[in-house]
Request: fold
Amino acid sequence: MLPNATLALVMGILSIVGCCCYGLPGIIFGIVAIIIATKSEKLYKENPENYLGYGNVKAGKIMGIIGIVLSILLVLFYVWLVVTFGWEALQDQELMQERMQEMMGQ
Reply:
């Protein structure tokens, strides 16, 4: 079994789940998953007959990439919300409704 193959898979899964927590954990776990998976891929390619679990490494790397992309999109969405509506409107529902109505031209 490849060392850290399961860890790469777990980090990839956590990166997708972590994107739901304002994006930052998803980015961190995704980067860790990609780094671990890249090291394990290099080890596997040196002696493929000696190792099992390459599928876990590939899946972990793919999920890490997906988690990073989703997390970055979520962070950009939050930045857009703050820039468009303001921090105060995000904390006050009535003010948010007013700003949304202004934006829609009503």
Summary: The chain has a mean pLDDT of 94.
